[in-house]
Write a structure and sequence with these properties.
232 residues; mainly alpha
Length: 232
């Protein structure tokens, strides 16, 4: 919040993506099911980009400042720092959903009951965890310049491969098979299930758990490694 332009970018970028990719296409924007899934995909894209950049760049930048060494002197384990990042910086990614949902509700045929909206927001919060942890891993593993390049490549690959820009139904078989193992595809399918109901494939929820706990373990290892390299 101390850098307003960064907040504006986080709020505007996902909404512009919806305006450019979904609203101009009547076949999608005017069909309730397709429009709802498109808004969900853009919501997942929003939290993914917000978390990758906020965590990845934010942590990489903080590691080069005097404040970070001071925090290392406090009597708190690494898990506290990791969870602190998730519950503070991660909230900004959820705030970015507000203009996105408003535009989706006004300019497309997307629909959701209040209960579906609540379940969807909770599902987005859960589905954002792999991206937050991935950003933390990048932040603790790389310098700021390296993190920028890696994040840009990562979020484009996850966005397209996870069906956030192009519906998976249009994927060739080989791409669809790979897509199902990506956290972005799992997040998309999980939030769609939370909003629209139906059957949730075991690969989706099991895969999300594997990504979350796997990346959490890696984040803690990288935190301890960074601590050992610079402060011991």
């Amino acid at each position: 919040m101390r850098v307003p332009i960064s907040v504006i970018g986080t709020l505007v970028f996902p909404t512009l993506s919806l305006l450019f990719f979904v609203v101009p296409q009547p076949a999608i924007a005017q069909d309730a099911e397709y429009a709802t899934q498109a808004v969900i995909s853009m919501s997942v894209f929003s939290v993914m980009v917000g978390n990758l950049f906020s965590f990845g760049l934010g942590i990489a930048e903080n590691r080069s400042k005097p404040w970070d060494p001071y925090l290392r002197t406090l009597p708190a384990p690494g898990i506290v720092r990791v969870l602190g990042h998730i519950f503070s910086t991660g909230l900004m990614s959820l705030v970015a959903l507000v203009p996105l949902l408003i535009v989706g509700g006004l300019l497309t045929a997307a629909t959701a009951t209040p209960a579906q909206l609540v379940f969807g927001l909770l599902a987005v919060a859960v589905a954002s965890l792999p991206f937050a942890l991935l950003g933390i891993c990048i932040g603790y593993a790389m310098s700021m310049k390296a993190a920028i390049a890696v994040i840009q490549v990562t979020f484009f690959a996850l966005a397209f491969g996870g069906g956030l820009f192009l519906p998976p139904i249009l994927f060739p078989d080989w791409l669809n098979a790979i897509s199902q193992f990506l956290p972005s595809r799992m997040a998309r399918d999980f939030v769609i299930w939370a909003v629209e109901g139906g059957e949730l494939a075991p690969l989706t929820w099991i895969g999300l758990l594997v990504w979350v706990f796997g990346l959490l373990a890696i984040a803690l290892v990288l935190f301890r490694r960074d601590e050992g390299r610079r402060y011991r």
